[in-house]
Each structure stands twice: as C-alpha cells, then as structure tokens.
C-alpha cells in the first residue's frame, strides 16, 4: 500500500504533531508501506525555520525510508491572528502544488492532518480526480480553538466558518481523531459514526518508563534533593495561558525549595521571560527544548508536572505532552473542566492526575501546595498502568493501519468495514 501524509508539521520537530507524524510515517515504512510526506520545513514551536531548511523553496529528502517533500511557507516572527491565517494559507497553496505534481503517482490513501483544514479543498479535489481514498486526522479542531479561545468573536464569521468546516469534513472517506470527546465533536459536526476512527496519540512505553533515573540531569540543572521541581515542558504559546504559572510562582516564592521550570519554545516565550524578569522571580527557570533521548530523564527529574490550558481548549486541543508524563508514571496537575475528556479520564481513573479549574491562580496554588506534601519519589502507578493499557505506540499504530487497509480495499461504502 502506498500512503501519502499531508501536514504542516514533521520531524525533526521535537514536540506535538511533528513528532507524532514522523514516528507514524517511519513506523508505516518499517511495516512495508511506501510512504511519502508532503510537509513544511521544521519550524515549530520556535516559529523559526531550522538551520539547513529553506522557507521559500521546495526541498526533497529521504529519511528512514520515507520520501519527504518540504513545501514553502510563510513563518511570521510575531504570531498574530492575521499572520497565522497567512501562514496556513501559504502552506495550503504550496502543498497543493506539490500534491498535484504527483498526479500520475497517486497513493492509495492520503492522510491530511488538521491543522490545517486550509489544505482540505485541494486534497479533496486531487482525491476526486485520482480516486484516492482520504482520511482527515484531527489533532486540533482549528475552528473550535479559534472561537473557543476568543481569538475571533462569535457571529456571522463564526457561523460561516463552521458551515465550511462541516462541508469539508463530509468530503473525506474517514475522519480520525485523538480522543473520544473529539470523536463526539466530529459527530456533532455531521460526520457519521461509521466514518470515525479513534487514533490516539501514544507513548513509547518501553523507552519512557518510571525506572529512568533523572538525578544526574536534576543535579546538572542545579536542583537539590530537597527542592520540589514543577515542570512545564512543551509549547510556550498563547493558548496555554502560562502566565498563571508565573502568578503561582510569585505567591510561592517565599519557599526556597519550590522551583518552576519551563522547558520548550513558542510564540509566547519572550513575553513569559520578560514577565518573570519584571517580577524578579528567582524561582522560575527557562530551558530550551531537549533532545528526545533526554526526555525520559527530564520527566524523571520533576516532582510535579504541569499541564496548563485555558478554558475552552481541552476538547479542541488534547495536550500531547500528557502521554509521556503518564508513561513515566509522573504526578501531574492538569487544568481542564470536569466535562472534558481530561476531566472524565480523572473520574474514571482515580489518582491518574489531579484535574483542576483552568485560569484560577488560587486553585493552582492550593493544588501545588497539596502536591508537594506528597511522596513524589514513588512513581504514579495509576498513570503508568493507563499508559501501558491504552497508549502503547505499536499497538495504536497497528490498529490504525488495519483500518487503513480496510478503507483502501473497499470500493464502495466502507463505513461499515472500519467499525
């Protein structure tokens, strides 16, 4: 089977969608598929194209049996709503050209990853012309995120955007997404249940384990055994609302053993650093993204993990960082409303993490004060067992591949086949 992935993000990006796309495509290639990825040059979460790649030129490469076509795109230095839309539109256009250049090399199936839905029209047109099967894999609901986070006001524009979203989603042969609540969201947007596939993000549970010793990295970063290290690792963007962590650090700065560590990059990192400097927060530390081989040590050295999001984000954007925290048996504080997927998981798996009200500094401070009183030297067995049962990389990828095979083998209504 020949498969084509179309997505903004791909390895060597170290976080989020790019990391998962790279692992997925390489796993498919290992299983004997012919895999091509039409992607952007790596730029996320730094919002800066990595060295060795070009913004405005097509580049091709082969990596671990995957053919890569890197497409030009606009990467703004300062991310605003308008610049983000232009960023997405340029990739939709350039990746569309790359796709149609392969008109006579058609794959059996195209997987389009959302974001960005901007790519959907040309993808669907190509599929109609060539008879290629299509899967829309939703990592983030772009439209829900934009309006749920208040980036654009509700009104006529929101209504039009949601109608276009429903129309585009209806054109795909199947729609996959990463959580059950996001599947319910797809149903509410008109996608029939028979077309839906649960394809969650995963963890390499044999690599990220509670047995990893993080003491050497902890010492290298200057933290003592008495310190309580609270770690946020990942995208330092606006949608997370990480200013609340700085507010908690301000309130807890009289305790010299409580240390807040941000590891990552993103559009909001300079603002966060400036705020920490202005507030003279000596208990806050910023570290760059760490290479994958150091991630287990980084997770192991933290006492408490912070998974911070604004209200309205938890079911539009399920934080990918949580999978590795659970695999490591980490103790986590998660900001999400009780009705969301994250809230329901906590209810179904008592002790897996503590889910608290988003955007409440008082609640976050209280939760941190309670958490540091507990014995964090022992790993969270509930979290680890959940990862082993539901987040194993090979199991998840094999299950999804079986669905893809059924889709491509069917010549008519395959909705019944993939259930």
Keyword list:
419 residues; alpha/beta; Rossmann fold; six-stranded parallel sheet; 15 helices; 17% strand; disordered C terminus
Using the alpha-carbon principal axes, give the shape.
globular
* Total DSSP E strands: 14
Task: Output the helix-strand order.
Answer: EHEEEHEHEHHEHEHEHEHEHEHEHEHHH
Task: Give the proportion of residues in helices.
Answer: 25-40%
CATH topology of the largest domain: Rossmann fold
CATH level 1 class label of the largest domain: Alpha Beta
Number of helices: 15
- Low-pLDDT runs of 5+ residues are 414-419
Q: Can you summarize the main beta sheet?
A: 8 strands, mixed
- The assigned CATH architecture of the largest domain is 3-Layer(aba) Sandwich
Structural class: alpha/beta
Which radius of gyration do the C-alpha atoms yield?
21 Å
In percent, how much strand structure appears in the residues?
15-25%
Let me know the CATH homologous superfamily of the largest domain.
Glycogen Phosphorylase B
Protein described:
With 419 residues, the chain is an alpha/beta fold. It has 2 domains: 219 residues, Glycogen Phosphorylase B (Rossmann fold), CATH 3.40.50; 176 residues, Glycogen Phosphorylase B (Rossmann fold, 3-Layer(aba) Sandwich), CATH 3.40.50. Helices cover 39% and strands 17% of the residues. The chain contains 15 helices and 14 strands. The strands form 2 sheets. It has an 8-stranded mixed beta sheet, with helices on both faces. It has a 6-stranded parallel beta sheet with strand order 11-10-9-12-13-14, with helices on both faces. The radius of gyration is 21 Å and the shape is globular. The two termini are 20 Å apart. The C terminus is likely disordered.
